[in-house]
Amino acid sequence: MLRFNSFNRTLTLTCLFLIAQSAWIMPANAQTDGYTHYISDSMQIPLRRGAGTEFRIERMLSAGSPIKVLEVGDSNWSRIEFTQNNRTWEGWVNKVAIQSERPSKMLLEEQTERFNRLDTRFKQLQSEHSSLRDQFKTASTELEQIKQERFELSKQLEHIKRVAGSTLEIEQQNQDLRKLVGDLETQNVIMREQIAQAEDTVKRQWFLTGAGVLILGLLIGRFFRMPARRGGWDKI
Q1: 53-106 pLDDT per residue, tens
Q2: What pLDDT is attached to residue 181?
């Protein structure tokens, strides 16, 4: 009994699964009036004047051609409308060749085109990535060179600062020396003037002394010569 119930449950679940699958598959191929459908990609389908193989073929419809279903007949035929290059045809085609979804051929073409676009974009990005990687290497090399140059320039700047400091100190010393030399020159001029004045004073003193000695000599000479003259006068 338990085995029988289990079998019934399994059978029931299987039936429900098949019914659900059928319900899911059927709308894909169900035909409704007024909506766009497509010719299946299995073959070229003849568009006929009437609903039957005995009617004349208007033209052949390629796989994937979009059509508009105008009427779904009771038989295996549907009346459709097909437009191409601003020209429209009406006719009947077999229901088997009509599907509501785009055929796999069209999907394959679209996916192939999309894949080609993505592949082109991928190659472009790959090329850009390679270019950016080369640019990054170049930038890294330039960065290392700039770091080295910056280090060398910083050392040169420190040396220049030291030299500039020494130069400023030497310049200050030169200014002090120039000031000292100027003071010494001023003192030298003053001393020269004083020496010149002292020389003039000495010369005047020597002149006065000489004049005094001369006058004194004359006076002494005159004094010592006077008696002799008096004796002579007595004799006269």
Answers
A1: 899 998 888 877 888 888 887 778 989 898 988 899 999 988 887 877 776 666
A2: 86
Query: What residues form DSSP beta bridges with 77?
Result: 94
Q: Which domains does the chain have, with CATH numbers?
A: 31-100 (2.30.30.40)
For the cut 60, the answer to whether the pLDDT of residue 6 exceeds it is no
CB 106 within 8 A of CB 80: no
- What residue ranges in the chain does DSSP mark as E strands? 36-39, 45-48, 57-61, 66-72, 77-84, 87-94, 98-99
The answer on pLDDT for 148 being more than 60 is yes
Residue 164 has pLDDT above 90, yes or no: no
Buried b (16+ CB within 10 A) or exposed e, 54-80: eeeeeeebebbbebbbeebeeeebbbb
**How many residues belong to the chain?**
236
Spatial distance between the Cα atoms of 151 and 157, rounded to a whole number of angstroms: 10
Tokens (6 digits) for 79 = 């009346």
End-to-end CA gap in the chain: 216
How far is Cα 120 from Cα 109, in angstroms, rounded to an integer? Answer: 16
Q: Do 81 and 9 touch, CB atoms closer than 8 A?
A: no
* Cβ–Cβ under 8 Å, residues 107 and 94: no
| Complete DSSP assignment for 61-97 | EPTT-EEEEEEE-SSSEEEEEEEETTEEEEEEEEGGG
Per-residue burial over 128-143, b if 16 or more Cβ lie within 10 Å, else e, is eeeeeeeeeeeeeeee
Q: Are strands 98-99 and 87-94 parallel, antiparallel or unpaired?
A: unpaired
